[in-house]
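Support request from a user on the community tier.

User writes: "When I paste my C-alpha cells into the form, the page sometimes reloads and wipes my input. The last time it worked, I copied everything first. Here is what I submitted, just in case something in the input itself triggers the reload:"
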C-alpha cells in the first residue's frame, strides 16, 4: 500500500526548442507543494510545471493534475512507480510519470482525476487530497 498526495493546482507538460534559456519564473519562489522538472536533450527541452509558470513560446499540454508518492523513500524500491502506473493503465487513464531523488510523481488528466483516484484506492493505495 502506498500513500499518494494530490498536489494543488493544475500542471502543464511543455516542449521548448533545444538551447532555450528557461526564465526564472519557472523555478523561482516555488511553493512547498510545487514541483518543476526539466529534461534537456539534443531534440529539445521538456518541462513539467504548474500552469502559471509556463514560459512564453512553449508548446503546451495543460489540464493535468499531479499525484505525488508521499516520501521521501528511504531507499530505491523496485516496483514503486509500477504500483502507481499499473492501476491507472488498467483504468485507461493516461499518465505522465517522472521521478525525483526523493519520490515519484504521476500526472493524470484533470478530467480523469476522479477515475484515477478511484483506481488507486481500488489497488489498495491511500489517497490524500
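"...and here is what came back when it finally went through:"
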Amino acid at each position: 500500500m502506498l500513500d499518494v498526495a494530490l498536489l494543488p493546482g493544475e500542471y502543464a507538460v511543455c516542449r521548448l526548442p533545444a538551447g532555450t534559456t528557461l526564465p526564472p519564473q519557472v523555478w523561482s519562489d516555488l511553493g512547498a507543494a510545487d514541483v518543476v522538472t526539466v529534461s534537456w536533450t539534443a531534440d529539445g527541452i521538456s518541462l513539467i510545471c504548474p500552469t502559471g509558470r509556463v514560459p512564453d513560446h512553449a508548446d503546451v499540454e495543460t489540464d493535468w493534475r499531479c499525484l505525488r508518492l508521499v516520501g521521501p523513500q528511504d531507499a530505491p524500491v523496485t516496483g514503486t512507480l509500477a504500483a502507481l502506473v499499473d492501476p491507472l493503465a488498467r483504468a485507461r487513464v493516461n499518465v505522465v510519470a517522472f521521478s525525483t531523488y526523493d519520490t515519484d510523481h504521476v500526472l493524470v488528466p484533470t478530467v480523469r482525476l476522479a477515475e484515477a483516484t478511484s483506481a488507486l484506492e481500488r489497488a489498495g493505495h491511500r489517497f490524500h487530497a
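Agent notes: The reload is a front-end session timeout and is unrelated to the input. The beta strands are 3-6, 11-16, 37-41, 44-50, 59-69, 96-99, 104-109, 126-128. The domain at 3-128 is CATH 3.30.2130.10 (VC0802-like). Escalated to web team.
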